[in-house]
Design a protein that fits this description.
722 residues; alpha/beta; Rossmann fold; 4 domains; three-stranded parallel beta sheet; 30 helices; globular
């Protein structure tokens, strides 16, 4: 995409003295040559081969975005070859190397390559090339040569600044095209190739093998014998004729219009307001339960007849108007939010049962935190991940076995809205993974007055493997968890920057999002010109870290080899050694066998740290005391804030009405004030007992209903069910 963006910029410039014909040769899913290459008259603007699902192809879409149409007046023309160059593709009919030597220049702006053979292959055939300082070959050229011609160009790449790379590619291609030193550049490639011959590199391999053998001697084990397995050849036939599926979305008028019901349904304010809950329930009580108390899904399920019946019901419309006025008045108070802004990061959020991006207490606390922030009218934005399958649901099968079940969430049936920029484009962020970037698009859920932004990698721009990064909460192996936390931490900060927010404080709810501090640190060094030590102090001064558990499973740790593979450039960017960088996540920075701890990283880059109860604060001080040698645990700055719950979410309507009558209207704004709660002694015991019995009856009814349903699913004897 950087190469295409550079070509688009060149095509619009007036400095180009010669036309450019650019080939993009990336194998894709095609079904043979296009008509123009079969000798027929029908023209294909870019493609040499018919591409399946071309409307989703990122290359074609980017070419159109850049205005490259291969028109007669264009200075840049592009031919996209989505086939393997094996000499028998039906159009080029040359192998890759024979095809390569016909070019004047090759461009390979990779973000991460351990070595990168393609630019080396180019110079081996005397074709000047462009590579980056993040590829091993480019780094080697920069360190070992002082080239006089544009034989090998090495540009700088920063994963958070694609525009800089695009400008460098554009300027180099412009310079190369307008240059008269092409022959000199070709000759200079020989100098690079001579030093890259096997006879020059073999000694490095000998040395690596010798070190590997020495280190492996102490780890030698006797492997068990493996019995030989007989193999058979199985013939399989693939049918070339296959259907092309089209997605069609049919939406209910109520979910596409600006009707008040839709506005209320798409803001989770309804979930802690009894009048709004009762309003949706009144539409169809049985279906309300069937759809999992999800108003978006409920409205979508209504037929046109049911909608017309509702809209003609004056009593129902009066209720809608009453709830809507209350909702609008609630939102208007957002204009009085304080100027200071807080960014809240969490791996999970327990907002409402139908939004399955939570597993337990950590998520419930985060959800309640956002709801109370909304009620308190705080200037807060939240960041998390949107999980396609959520967290597993447990049920008991007919054998009495516990089963974990994952179900795909239908995002169209959730109160989600795409986050779009000023041009109407979906806001996306990119994170560099080994050998490729991964893209995450942003969604938003409104929790009252608070926006929650969620990142989602399940998009066609990513590889099938990378699309699964945000499939499951706490799913996959340790490497998968590392990728999730890179998306949350690094991607979350990039999203905040892309949206133009400038939070004053960052709150990390558990260590999963600790990489956000690394991204902020890097931004301060790049944009403010601070050194590592100063930038680290700025990050600390504006970071709060909440730790939740002493259980090891709650503190993610990663092997050093994973950190090297996925975060290899941070130490170079910070201008510190690799040992210093990886030491940021270790109790003992000098212990190479210690894993990288996200909680330790969060602590080292946070000024304020708290546990979630008084006793947990003490446990946390004892647990993290080794990070502060010379101090007793009681002297540490780790405090505590006792976990609370959101009053309106967890208090039944019957008690809310009693408290309002007894404590007064102002009570909800002074919930921690014990003087209000002491008024409960003025309430007669009979009233409290009556409320308690009423709620217990409802609880028993719900238990019976659920138990009966579970027994049905297990095919129990009807006598047992009755």
């Amino acid at each position: 995409d950087l190469f295409i963006r550079a070509l688009g910029a060149i095509n619009k410039s007036k400095d180009l003295q010669r036309d450019i014909l650019a080939y993009i040769t990336i194998p894709a899913d095609h079904r043979g040559p296009t008509n123009v290459f079969r000798g027929k008259q029908k023209r294909s603007n870019y493609l040499t081969h018919k591409l399946n699902h071309f409307e989703h192809d990122s290359i074609l879409n980017e070419l159109k975005n850049q205005g490259i149409g291969n028109d007669m007046n264009d200075k840049v023309h592009v031919i996209f070859v989505p086939a393997y160059l094996n000499g028998n593709d039906g159009v080029i009919n040359l192998n890759y190397y024979d095809f390569l030597i016909g070019h004047d220049l090759s461009v390979f702006p990779s973000y991460y390559e351990p070595w990168g053979y393609t630019p080396l292959e180019s110079v081996a055939f005397k074709v000047p090339t462009l590579t980056t300082d993040k590829a091993g070959f480019g780094d080697w050229v920069s360190r070992n040569f002082k080239l006089k011609t544009p034989s090998v160009a090495v540009i700088g790449r920063d994963e958070s600044d694609d525009n800089s790379a695009v400008h460098q590619i554009r300027d180099f291609i412009n310079s190369f095209v307008n240059s008269k030193d092409h022959e000199a550049a070709r000759k200079e490639t020989v100098e690079v190739v001579q030093k890259a011959l096997w006879k020059s590199f073999i000694n490095h391999y000998y040395k690596s093998w010798e070190l590997a053998l020495q280190n492996s001697a102490s780890r030698k084990t006797v492997l068990p014998k493996i019995e030989k397995i007989e193999t058979r050849v199985v013939e399989a036939q693939i049918q070339p004729d296959r259907p092309e599926w089209k997605k069609i979305i049919v939406e209910s008028p109520l979910t596409t219009s600006k009707h008040p019901l839709k506005e209320i349904a798409f803001n989770l304010w309804w979930s802690w307001n009894p009048e709004a809950v009762e309003l949706f329930e009144s539409i169809n009580p049985d279906r309300w339960r069937e759809v999992g108390y999800n108003p978006v899904r409920l409205l979508e399920s209504l037929s046109l007849d049911e909608i017309e019946k509702l809209l003609s019901n004056k009593k129902f419309n009066d209720r809608v108007d009453k709830v809507y006025v209350k909702f609008q008045n609630y939102l208007k108070a957002a204009d009085k939010k304080p100027d200071k802004q807080l960014a809240y990061f969490s791996m999970e959020y327990g907002l409402q049962a139908s939004i399955q991006i939570y597993s337990g207490g950590l998520g419930i606390l985060a959800g309640d935190y956002l709801k109370q922030a909304s009620d308190s009218n705080k200037n807060l934005i939240a960041v998390g991940l949107l999980y396609r399958q959520g967290y597993f649901k447990q049920f008991i099968n007919y054998k009495g076995e516990q089963i974990a079940e994952y179900k795909l969430q239908k995002f169209t049936q959730l109160p989600l809205a795409p986050v779009r920029d000023e041009h109407g484009e979906w806001v996306k962020v990119k994170i560099a993974l080994p050998g490729r970037p991964v893209t995450a698009k942003a969604w938003k859920i409104d929790i009252g007055r608070i926006p929650l932004y969620l990142l989602d990698t399940d998009i066609t721009e990513n590889t099938p493997e990378d699309r699964t990064i945000t499939y499951q909460l706490y799913g996959g192996n340790n490497e998968h968890r590392l990728k999730q936390e890179m998306i949350l931490g690094l991607g979350g900060v990039r999203l905040i920057n892309a949206l133009g927010h400038c939070p004053d404080v960052f709150h990390l709810n558990e260590g999963h999002s600790a990489f956000s501090s690394l991204e902020r640190l890097k931004n301060l060094m790049d944009r403010e010109g601070l050194n590592f030590e100063t930038a680290a102090e700025v990050v600390k001064a504006s970071t709060l870290f909440t730790t939740h558990t002493p259980v090891p499973a709650g503190h993610d740790t990663f092997e050093e080899h994973l950190m090297r593979a996925y975060l290899p450039h941070f130490s170079e960017h910070f201008k510190i050694s690799w040992d210093e960088f990886v030491g940021l996540g270790r109790f003992n920075p000098h212990n190479p066998n210690e894993k990288f701890s996200m909680s330790v990283l969060a602590l080292k880059l946070a000024q304020e740290v708290n546990g979630v109860s008084k006793i947990h604060g003490k446990v946390s001080r004892d647990m993290f005391q080794p990070l502060y040698p010379g101090y007793y645990s009681d002297e540490l700055h780790i405090g505590y804030v006792t976990n609370g719950v959101h009053y309106f979410t967890w208090t039944d309507k019957i008690w809310q009405e009693l408290y309002k009558k007894t404590f007064g209207d102002d009570f909800i704004y002074h919930q921690p004030d014990t003087s209000y709660w002491e008024k409960i002694y003025d309430v007669a015991d009979e009233i409290i007992w009556k409320n308690r019995l009423a709620l217990k009856i409802n609880l028993i009814k719900e238990i019976k209903r659920k138990q009966k349903n579970d027994l049905k699913l297990r095919h129990e004897n009807p006598k047992v069910m009755l």
